[in-house]
């Protein structure tokens, strides 16, 4: 879709009008940030620095920020009461859901399909586009990849300089790196598909499947590739029974704790996990690279993150759009510098990648940023359901086909609501 002359003029007119207001006619807009009530040291201060930088950059708009832990219900209530902030720091995988319910303001003429796709990575742009309009600004993102313990791979005679290129190579890594004691306990695990940050959707994509069709707006959980992926997971579960795991953890929770302790030779994690590994285990020698995929499949990596929206009925939507346009460049730079949140804006992201030393373990991950799969609408409830159902699959309590057919029936009505 090509941007029309009228759209171009509209954006220019909006900027000119706001720039022409008298110096004393300052518009104050309210900005709610820290959607998930992140308690990390320096988190709120980074947003305060961003707000201060914007306020200092011009004299027509003043942003006042505040923190309210973000829940869908709380935001919906504030919109209904007419007291929502002008800009809200918001989970981008929920943008289409909220837009379909009439809870958000569209971002045109500042962003339309053409411009959002031109300035942002495709996976992030897809999460905020719906029904011909753009409803949110992508914020930060992640890239998932394979992490492996270099020392363990050297110990078992595998090439530790790169990731396995095929699923067969990944299976070889798992077999050689796993340690089974004489009593049957598994005290070191090579790899398992369900540990770490890949999640079922990632393996579905790796086998060439999908969980959502953007053309029809419907879930596609019963695709044969998805079923094949879960049969593959069942094979892993039979080879490495979970009841035999006796893995030591250290410093971090879940798969990350097993990885830093050396009880897990390889796992899937995101770029922002690098800092956590370095803090928890400074001497850990690890590599990063692509997650292998099946023939006919694709890179199963995906991102995720928090962006920004303008709630329905915002008192100052035009000024809010100007603030969002600034966040897309200068704001994303500040949040990366302060928090390491990787930008979704290509003009900001690529210079960051180019500035990193080649031995930075994030570089192989960032090189895949344009390959990420977008999270579909209703991502949170669907992925939670898939993770829960995968446990049933691993325990051989039902077949992949039956489980996915049940989930498809469950979620078709939910996706139909988005079409109304």
Main features:
single chain, 420 residues, alpha+beta, 4-stranded mixed sheet, 17 helices, disordered N terminus
As laid out across the biggest beta sheet, the strand order is: 2-1-3-14
Radius of gyration: 23 Å
Oligomerization state = single chain
Number of strands: 15
Instruction: Give the uncertain stretches in residue-range form.
Output: 1-9
Distance between the termini: 24 Å
Portion in beta strands? 5-15%
Envelope shape: globular
Structural class: alpha+beta
**Number of helical segments with 4 or more residues:** 17
Helix content: 40-55%
Q: Main beta sheet: strand number and arrangement?
A: 4 strands, mixed
Mean pLDDT: 93
Q: How does this model look, in words?
A:
The chain contains 17 helices and 15 strands. The strands form six sheets. The chain has a four-stranded mixed β-sheet with strand order 2-1-3-14. Helix content is about 45%, strand content about 15%. Strand 10 (about 210-215) and strand 11 (about 220) form a beta hairpin. It is α+β, with helices and mostly antiparallel strands. The model is unreliable at about 1-10 (pLDDT under 50). The two termini are about 25 Å apart. Helix 2 (about 45-55) packs across helix 13. The radius of gyration is 23 Å and the shape is globular. It has helices at about 5-20, 45-55, 70-80, 95-100, 115-120, 120-125, 150-155, 165-175, 200-205, 225-240, 255-260, 275-280, 315-340, 345-355, 365, 380-395, 400-420, and strands at about 25-35, 60-65, 85-90, 130, 135, 140, 145-150, 180, 185-190, 210-215, 220, 265-270, 285-290, 305-310, 340-345.
